[in-house]
Design a protein that fits this description.
Helix content is about 35%, strand content about 25%. With about 250 residues, the chain is an alpha/beta fold. Strand 2, helix 4 and strand 3 form a beta-alpha-beta unit. It is globular. The termini are far apart.
């Protein structure tokens, strides 16, 4: 199955082509996705804690997300979908890049995990009336063509009382220096052209889009990299990477 990009969608076909080209490397912790593998535990813990806080769960329980339906938009090879499923969540992983979905399905099968991976877009899921307790847009917002429209579509799929979590990159000189010059040209963490600085989204812009879509911002955090420890951690600094959780009224 392939996606019809001529339909009304916020998907950027050029962005999808870039990720298709490196799809086979999703599960190589030393490959082109190495940085994402190191970043993943931080965003997983933050998403888990936000969901547990919203739904009155104990984040220390191994099945703390049991009974909750998650949508992981732009799931890629399933790096976040899989650990969420291990915590008990019922996960739908959606990605417009067919190769990403093929890689994700294969890895989930090898891991013995039942994850509903679909080669589709947020708009198509919304049109089908899909609803979720938690909608995730992790490292996706900076790749779409229309941020307010995309956020509105995502928010529409959150059930009453549900949650939307987004992780993205701030549009600052610091993010240009670190996320593009540093990560793509100097350290070669990512292929050159992975990100376009003018498509980065400020926290105020993302918060405004969420509020316009009927959500209320509940929490936010920056994520920073410590080169000496080779580790990512939560921080107040939202100049480059950051995450926002927003709630829908019950």
């Amino acid at each position: 199955m392939s996606i019809d990009f001529d339909r009304s969608t916020t998907v950027d076909a050029a962005e999808i082509a870039r990720f298709e080209a490196i799809a086979e490397t999703w599960w190589d912790p030393r490959g082109k996705m190495a940085t994402l593998h190191k970043f993943n535990p931080v965003r997983l813990a933050w998403v888990r804690d936000a969901a547990c806080a919203r739904f009155g769960r104990d984040p220390r329980r191994i099945d703390c997300l049991s009974g909750l339906r998650f949508l992981d938009i732009g799931c890629g090879g399933g790096i976040l979908s899989e650990p969420l499923a291990r915590l008990g969540a019922s996960v739908v992983g959606a990605d417009p890049a067919v190769t990403n979905i093929e890689v994700a399905r294969l890895h989930a099968a090898k891991s013995g995990l039942a994850i509903d991976y679909r080669n589709t877009t947020a708009e198509t899921l919304a049109e089908a009336g899909e609803r979720f307790d938690v909608v995730l847009a992790m490292e996706v917002v900076e790749h779409v063509t229309d941020v307010p429209l995309f956020v509105s579509v995502c928010a529409g799929m959150a059930k009453p009382g549900g949650l939307m979590v987004a992780a993205t990159l701030n549009r600052t000189l610091k993010s240009w220096a670190l996320a593009i010059v540093g990560a793509e040209y100097v350290l070669r963490w990512l292929p050159v052209g992975t990100h376009q600085w003018d498509k980065f989204v400020t926290p105020k812009e993302l918060e405004a889009a969420m509020e316009q879509a009927g959500l209320s911002v509940a929490d936010e955090s920056g994520v920073i990299y410590n080169p000496l420890a080779d580790r990512w951690s939560l921080a107040r600094d939202m100049d480059v990477n950051y995450m926002i959780a927003a709630e829908k009224a019950a």
